[in-house]
């Protein structure tokens, strides 16, 4: 594959679609809907922004990837023109934006991929100044090392082309893991783009540049090509499992999104819901996991559903919703010279059935059925039975779950299937089940970690803040007898064994580092508070000038570090 010279267009090539036109379109869309930006929304989203700063708050860039008979996949367009991608990043985007040839995806296909940012890339000023991350739930915070790619791929017969097919992808590159939101945006603009080409894409990007900033907790009205989308990004203060956005339709909006990031959980887990609790354990423990699927849509949705099933706990290992043999990490993740890494991969190429057959846990799924259709439940099978991607669907693993299977949730979901309960309602039930299971597991850990905080009376304004006590696994295990998960969950099994394994996992490491950072910051705040309550003038009178200068310098450094 070679990279074609990309067509780049920017402010100088706007023609009739100039800035004034875009402003008029936005105003017309909002005026037609009767929406006026609230004062604070306008201030947060627009004040002091330079050209494309608004766009950069949501997207890194937009790419168009086409297929050339001589060159193969090639980046044809990158917009806006100042956005930079390294050759390695372009190559990854090229291969990840097209389904494998064996997928046979005719028509329109949407999926998502995630790829590693090139090392040495300069962090943008916008990322450094981004204050919105601190109010996000931990599982929605941006990972500075990765980009997401949201793809709308079209493949249709075209006799005028040598290959006989029109093949092109419109790809949104972003740091934000708002899967449902960006898929909805693409659904609105991609079909029109394929008919009207670059001028339409430029107009859509101008609309995005005028969006308010993605502030968590605020109801945002986002105009896009004559439509208005109403969204709310969750905050870390929201009650898990709830949505704060009203579903009531109004004349202000064309589209109301109850979630920006969640996938259709039941549709993805439907073929394997008998084993959903075992899969929850595998994800919780950061076990190497491969999803083998017939197309990128199925692989990406299933991987994202797996990552989502341990929410509100963040999955701290790497995950690739769609992974190909051309990926820059292919050798790293498929080597047999070391144990498989803690990662979840979604693949479609039959080659992976052989390449990854040494991996301990493989989910082989068939086509995901439309809402209302229920596929046959797959069985847990031995790994040696998996030889090709044509093998029967199943969960191929020798893993023995620590917890007994919860028959109640299975009965509830099966009853929903028999009564033809909508997939959305089934997803709500399954999401609540995973949420309660994760909370039952994490509450004892939260309770123990909170006990590591020093007592407030031990904080002296004239001494360094006291340190957190060390996390001692055996001491924690002893607390489980009286304050373990049995207080909130009726599921029986070897909870202690599950905790022991979890304490060795990347998910525990990431979770504990986050909690320790938060608690250390809290100690610093309490220490500053204690200092503020002291009579400094009285203290100065009792100490030498050298000691006073030393105190002032220490206070200066403390304030600097606290407000970083």
From TrEMBL:
It comes from the Eukaryota. It is found in: Recycling endosome. InterPro entries: ABL9/DENND6_dom, DENND6, Tripartite_DENN. Its main location: other. PROSITE patterns: DENN (PS50211). Residues 60-522 form the UDENN domain. Belongs to the DENND6 family. This is DENN domain containing 6A. The lineage of its organism: Eukaryota, Metazoa, Chordata, Craniata, Vertebrata. The gene is Dennd6a.
């Amino acid at each position: 594959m070679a990279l074609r010279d990309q067509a780049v267009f920017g402010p100088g090539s706007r023609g009739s679609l100039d800035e004034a036109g875009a402003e008029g379109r936005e105003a017309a869309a909002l005026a037609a809907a009767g929406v006026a930006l609230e004062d604070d929304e306008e201030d947060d989203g627009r004040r002091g922004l330079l050209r494309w700063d608004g766009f950069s708050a949501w997207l890194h860039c937009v790419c168009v990837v086409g297929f050339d008979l001589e060159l193969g996949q090639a980046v044809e367009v990158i917009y806006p023109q100042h956005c930079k991608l390294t050759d390695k990043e372009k190559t990854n985007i090229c291969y990840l934006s097209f389904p494998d040839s064996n997928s046979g995806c005719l028509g329109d296909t949407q999926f998502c991929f995630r790829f590693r940012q090139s090392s040495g890339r300069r962090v943008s000023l916008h990322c450094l100044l981004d204050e919105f991350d601190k109010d996000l739930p931990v599982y929605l915070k941006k990972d500075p090392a990765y980009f997401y790619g949201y793809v709308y791929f079209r493949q249709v017969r075209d006799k005028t082309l040598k290959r006989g097919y029109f093949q092109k992808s419109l790809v949104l590159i972003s740091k934000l893991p708002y899967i449902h939101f960006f898929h909805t945006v693409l659904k609105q603009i991609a079909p029109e783009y394929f008919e009207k080409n670059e001028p339409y894409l430029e107009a859509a990007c101008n609309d995005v540049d005028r969006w308010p900033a993605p502030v968590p907790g605020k109801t945002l009205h986002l105009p896009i090509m004559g439509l208005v989308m109403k969204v709310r990004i969750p905050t870390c203060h929201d009650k898990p499992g709830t949505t704060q956005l009203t579903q009531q339709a109004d004349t202000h909006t064309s589209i109301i999104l109850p979630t920006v990031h969640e996938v259709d959980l039941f549709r993805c887990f439907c073929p394997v819901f008998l084993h959903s609790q075992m899969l929850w354990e595998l994800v919780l423990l950061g076990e190497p996991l491969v999803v083998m699927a017939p197309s990128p849509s199925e692989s990406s949705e299933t991987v994202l559903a797996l990552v989502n099933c341990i929410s509100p706990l963040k999955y701290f290992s790497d995950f690739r919703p769609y992974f190909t043999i051309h990926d820059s990490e292919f050798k790293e993740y498929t080597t047999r010279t070391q144990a498989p890494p803690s990662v979840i991969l979604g693949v479609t190429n039959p080659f992976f059935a052989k390449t990854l057959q040494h991996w301990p846990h493989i989910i082989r799924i068939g086509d995901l059925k439309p809402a209302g259709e229920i596929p046959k439940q797959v069985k847990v099978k031995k790994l040696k039975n998996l030889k090709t991607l044509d093998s029967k669907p199943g969960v191929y693993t020798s893993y023995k779950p620590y917890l007994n299977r919860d028959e109640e949730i299975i009965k509830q979901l099966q009853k929903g299937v028999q009564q033809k309960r909508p997939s959305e309602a089934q997803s709500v039930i399954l999401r609540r089940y995973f949420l309660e299971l994760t909370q039952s597991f994490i509450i004892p850990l939260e309770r123990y970690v909170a006990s590591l905080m020093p007592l407030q009376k031990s904080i002296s304004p004239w001494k360094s803040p006291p340190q957190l006590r060390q996390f001692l696994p055996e001491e924690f295990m002893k607390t489980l007898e009286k304050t373990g998960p049995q207080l909130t969950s009726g599921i029986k099994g070897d909870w202690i064994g599950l905790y022991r394994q979890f304490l060795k996992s990347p998910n525990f490491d990431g979770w504990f580092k986050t909690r320790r950072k938060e608690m250390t910051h809290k100690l610093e705040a309490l220490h500053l508070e204690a200092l503020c309550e002291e009579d400094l003038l009285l203290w100065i009178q009792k100490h030498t000038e050298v000691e006073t200068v030393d105190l002032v310098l220490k206070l200066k450094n403390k304030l600097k570090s606290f407000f970083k």
